[in-house]
Specification:
single chain, 291 residues, D-Maltodextrin-Binding Protein, domain 2, 2 domains, 5-stranded mixed β-sheet, 12 helices, 42% helix, globular
Length: 291
């Protein structure tokens, strides 16, 4: 074999090796994809534990003793899972801003935290049809010393609004013209409440139920009354799944057709303050995802 033939033989061997490595990588990738794409319905069918992820956001979702999943969204999720054939659930509590990243990382199978359906979220997760319809409320120091009754008031007076990181309030405040540096984002409800109490923020905004519960428990703050929520900014909480779980979403939606508003559902959620006024109004997820 001359020098040229030796070089060609060597190159051929290298190319075959690269091809073999590529095939192996493709095989590993496909295998990994099949594992990550395991159907939630298959997990239920095989008796595997379903992991539900939520943040402490009463009354939508919050942990009880031993992290027991409480709140009206958790109650609805557990009843639907039971109708699908399982009561084997593992609750996983995390911060609000970690819910979608946690789902994507495989830490849990469903987000049951009452996350609102928003176009930017629809690019990362699949939502069921809405579970409720909520508006925002405004938390202010007792007596409402700065006379705040709308986002416009906060904007016009150059004040700071606090909300939780990842909340839809961030976008609503921006749309109302409140500058980005006047929208304080904190980790959770404890930090949210504290910001209003100590004056780091003039007011705080989250969904009506959350603000009401905070005001009921701490008499140094109150709900702004009256409060004019941002026009057309109603929130529609839902359950969220990975994009490869369309079959599970379809199964949940099928149950929701007869479950939403039923006596069974209202008995489960009533103790958390959910009433018929909060029932969804027929707005569809597909339209909410369009914005």
């Amino acid at each position: 074999m001359d020098k040229w033939q030796a070089e060609q033989s060597f190159k051929s061997a290298i190319l075959k090796g690269i091809a073999a490595l590529g095939l192996a990588a493709m095989t590993i990738s496909c295998f990994a994809g099949s594992v990550s794409a395991q159907s939630l319905l298959d997990k239920i069918k095989h008796g595997e534990t379903i992991r539900v992820g939520f943040a402490s956001d009463p009354p939508s979702a919050y942990p009880g003793e031993n992290n027991a999943p409480l709140g009206f969204v958790n109650a609805m999720a557990l009843e639907i899972l039971k109708k699908l054939g399982t009561t084997k659930v593992e609750p996983i509590v995390t911060e609000w801003g970690s819910l979608i990243p946690g789902l994507q990382a495989g830490r849990f199978d469903i987000i049951t935290g009452g996350m609102y359906i928003l176009p930017e979220r629809c690019r990362n997760v699949l939502f069921t049809e809405p579970l409720a319809k909520f508006t925002e409320a405004l938390l202010v120091p007792n007596g409402n010393p700065k006379e705040l009754h709308s986002f416009d008031d906060i904007r016009d007076k150059g004040l700071t609004l606090v909300t939780t990181a990842g909340s839809d309030t961030v976008k609503n405040a921006k749309d109302a013209g409140i500058p980005e540096d006047r929208v304080m984002q904190v980790a959770g409800q404890a930090e949210f409440l504290q910001a209003v109490k100590v004056g780091r923020a003039a007011a705080g905004s989250l969904n009506y139920f959350t603000v009401k519960e905070l005001a009921d428990k701490d008499h140094s703050v109150e709900m702004a009354d009256p409060f004019t929520p941002p026009a057309g900014k109603a929130g529609y909480p839902s359950l969220a799944f990975l994009p490869n779980q369309q079959a599970a979403v379809d199964a949940f939606n099928e149950i929701l057709k007869t479950y939403i508003g039923s006596e069974e559902m209202m008995q489960s959620v009533g103790k958390y303050g959910y009433t018929k006024i909060n029932l969804p109004d027929g707005t569809k997820t597909v339209d909410l995802c369009k914005g």
